[in-house]
Specification:
Length: 73
């Protein structure tokens, strides 16, 4: 009788553990990105893209304005 009770308890514990591991989350992945680029470096990169004709003048001016606002905070 005692062995039967021990087995039942072990099975119940195992079942609880298996059940609870399914509650561990939905596979959510959290990523954090940190940049260490200065305003000067970003402006140089932007200017280089404009000089290489990768950006139009309008795109360049808009991007530059966004950068200046971003770093003004």
């Amino acid at each position: 009788m005692k062995r039967h009770l021990v087995r039942c308890c072990m099975i119940a514990c195992f079942a609880c553990c298996v059940h609870l591991t399914g509650c561990g989350g939905g596979g959510a992945e959290i990523k954090q990105t940190t940049t260490h680029t200065s305003l000067g470096q970003e402006l140089q990169d932007l200017d280089a893209a404009y000089q290489k004709k990768i950006l139009t003048e309008k795109e360049y001016k808009n991007a530059k304005e966004k950068l200046l606002k971003k770093y003004a905070k």
